[in-house]
């Protein structure tokens, strides 16, 4: 944990959004909506909460981050590049041939990626395996896994959820980026998840229901989890807004997997810079 | 051990305990069929290295991948049909793509889960997994081969699929036989025809060789326990030196050992290959030997096929 204040984290989140958008704009391909709903949580994890060493990405005592909703990786790449896991110039290579920054995270190519993801529903199981390995190896590291609400349609998510309770993985923190939209429509229209907080309580988790864009609340929650003594795995139901930070992207289905044109990019960058959306 | 029959899943069960004792990073991830896959001794003796994730193959594969990222050597254990097909995409995405050190160790290969019927018989597994980059695909031919090849798989960094029999099959090796993944074992030398088999059909190839021999036909017999990476040199030797090959496998004739051998022959542009295996059809509940017979996977058919190729 690094002692960084919430104001600084908010600035950092703004910078990460701008970097991620620039990457997607330059690639003319990518997923801005989910990257922006996840941005504040990712910022708090990478810049404050997690114990990492950019000089030694495979440090065996590091905390792990599993982006199970791998398609929003530009926001993770932005964090890794900013922290120095790889040269920042790599941030201009997203989705290009030979790049370490594949369209979905590739642990073999990109320093700081703890597991390759992209096929939805699978990353959380890997996070469970990492957390179990931590117990087996008597390590104190923790595993943070971010899943999507649309992704939670996948049955394997629930297999993994049950498994973490079975093995009492108090070193696993599952974060739901609950932005209410999936590719074809709202989660209520496509596959209602109902009350995820209640569900996860019933599955044996310590549950935190938060606003995933309120940096003070995010930081407080992570502090509380770090200080907690319960043996249960943790679940943060983070209520978020898809496309958060750009007026014409917020809550818009069309921005799940689309890149902005020149004019849209300029407006979005201006709005992100102002930071009042 | 002449005449002794042991299921290769028993060889796996013994080998994995011995390996686990020596190397604390080796772990077993069971999918609630550990008793049947012979991991009971491991679970009892090495509980700190043992997990059972319940009837959840996909999660079992992912958990294994996660364990491997932290230096563990997980053996995820289930039946062949589930270990290949139910967790197929997880194997591709989370094990083979990142080339993680996960072993998929499966009992009930081929039609050996005979009375269970077609749902539990595994006829596509080796072919499906053979097409995934970074994967190694192995089926030992007897109890001793299983023990040795499980140990070799543990030593080899990367994903390995190991396929065992439910049923007891004759012991054909002894404990001194050495194995190398990707290298065929020459069991008999002969210049008239080559019989390339693997798994539980190697015994049939040996019986056929004996019968052919009594009729004056000399057959070379290879145990091609690894179909990926295939021992191409061994196949090329057969093609160039003999020119006639029969492949025998307890697997669909599509995309398994026979197909792999045909690929080499076609690219070499020489030789004649006949494939004996499951005839691209689902099985049914019936005795194991009867199911083989219904697909022509018999000593007699190997002999007849050899003779027809020599006409």
UniProtKB/TrEMBL annotation, chain A:
Please give the Pfam families that the UniProt record associates with this protein. Answer: Transketolase_N
**Which ranges carry the Transketolase N-terminal domain?**
11-270
Q: Which residues form a coiled coil?
A: none
- According to its UniProt record, which cofactors does this protein need? thiamine diphosphate
Which terms are listed as keywords in the entry? Thiamine pyrophosphate
Q: Which family does it belong to?
A: Belongs to the transketolase family.
Q: What is this protein called?
A: Transketolase
The organism encoding this protein is Lactonifactor longoviformis DSM 17459
Q: What is the lineage of its organism?
A: Bacteria, Bacillati, Bacillota, Clostridia, Eubacteriales
TrEMBL record, chain B:
InterPro entries from the UniProt entry = PDH/Transketolase (IPR051157), THDP-binding (IPR029061), Transketo_C/PFOR_II (IPR009014), Transketolase-like_Pyr-bd (IPR005475), Transketolase_C (IPR033248)
User: What are the residue boundaries of the Transketolase-like pyrimidine-binding domain, all occurrences included?
Assistant: 6-171
- Cofactor(s), by name: thiamine diphosphate
**Which keywords does UniProt give here?**
Thiamine pyrophosphate
| Family affiliation | Belongs to the transketolase family.
**Family annotation (PANTHER family):** PYRUVATE DEHYDROGENASE E1 COMPONENT, TRANSKETOLASE-LIKE PYRIMIDINE-BINDING DOMAIN-CONTAINING PROTEIN
Q: Can you say what this protein is called?
A: Transketolase
Species assigned in the record: Lactonifactor longoviformis DSM 17459
């Amino acid at each position: 944990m690094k002692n960084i204040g919430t104001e600084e984290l908010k600035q950092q989140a703004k910078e990460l959004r701008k970097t991620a958008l620039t990457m997607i704009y330059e690639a003319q391909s990518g997923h801005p909506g989910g990257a922006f709903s996840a941005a504040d949580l990712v910022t708090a994890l990478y810049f404050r909460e997690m114990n990492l060493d950019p000089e030694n990405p495979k440090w065996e005592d590091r905390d792990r981050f599993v982006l199970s909703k791998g398609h929003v990786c530009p926001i993770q790449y932005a964090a890794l590049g900013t922290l120095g896991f790889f040269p920042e110039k790599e941030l201009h290579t997203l989705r290009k041939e030979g790049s370490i920054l594949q369209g979905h995270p590739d642990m073999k190519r990109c320093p700081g990626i703890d597991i390759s993801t992209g096929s939805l529903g699978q990353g959380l199981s890997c996070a469970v395996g990492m957390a179990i390995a931590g117990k087996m190896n008597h390590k104190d590291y923790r595993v943070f896994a971010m899943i999507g609400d649309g992704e939670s349609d996948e049955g394997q998510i629930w297999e993994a959820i049950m498994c973490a309770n079975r093995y009492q993985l108090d070193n696993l923190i599952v974060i739901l980026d609950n932005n209410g939209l999936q590719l074809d429509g709202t989660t209520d229209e496509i596959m209602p998840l109902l009350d995820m907080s209640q569900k996860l309580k019933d599955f044996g988790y310590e549950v935190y229901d938060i606003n995933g864009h309120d940096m003070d609340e995010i930081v407080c929650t992570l502090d509380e989890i770090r200080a907690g003594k319960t043996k249960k795995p943790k679940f943060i139901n983070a209520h978020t807004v898809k496309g958060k930070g750009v007026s014409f992207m917020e809550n818009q289905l069309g921005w799940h997997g689309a890149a902005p044109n020149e004019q849209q990019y300029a407006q979005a960058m201006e709005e992100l810079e102002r930071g009042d959306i | 051990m002449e005449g002794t029959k042991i299921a290769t899943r028993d060889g796996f069960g013994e080998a994995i305990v011995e390996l686990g004792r020596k190397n604390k990073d080796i772990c077993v991830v069971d999918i609630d069929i550990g008793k049947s896959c012979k991991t009971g001794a491991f679970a009892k003796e090495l509980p700190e290295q043992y997990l059972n994730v319940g009837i959840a193959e996909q999660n079992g594969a992912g958990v294994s991948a996660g364990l491997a990222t932290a230096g563990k050597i997980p053996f995820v254990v289930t039946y062949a049909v589930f270990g290949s097909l139910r967790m197929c995409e997880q194997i591709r995405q989370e094990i083979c793509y990142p080339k993680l050190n996960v072993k998929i160790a499966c009992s009930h290969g081929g039609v050996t889960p005979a009375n269970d019927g077609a749902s539990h018989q595994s006829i596509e597994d080796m072919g499906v997994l053979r097409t995934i980059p970074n994967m190694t695909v192995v089926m030992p031919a007897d109890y001793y081969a299983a023990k040795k090849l499980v140990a070799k798989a543990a030593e080899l960094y990367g994903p390995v699929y190991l396929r065992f029999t439910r049923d007891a099959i004759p012991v054909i090796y002894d404990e001194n036989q050495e194995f190398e993944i990707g290298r065929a074992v020459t069991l008999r030398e002969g210049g008239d025809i080559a019989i390339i088999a693997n798994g539980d059909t190697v015994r049939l190839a040996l019986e056929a060789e004996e019968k052919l021999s009594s009729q004056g036909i000399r057959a070379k017999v290879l145990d091609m326990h690894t179909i990926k990476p295939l021992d191409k040199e061994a196949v090329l030797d057969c093609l160039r030196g003999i020119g006639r090959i029969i492949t025998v496998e307890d697997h669909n004739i599509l995309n398994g050992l026979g197909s792999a051998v045909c690929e080499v022959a076609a690219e070499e542009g020489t030789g004649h290959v006949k494939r004996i295996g499951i005839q691209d059809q689902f099985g049914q509940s019936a005795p194991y030997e009867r199911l083989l017979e219904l697909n022509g996977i018999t000593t007699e058919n190997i002999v007849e096929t050899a003779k027809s190729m020599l006409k």
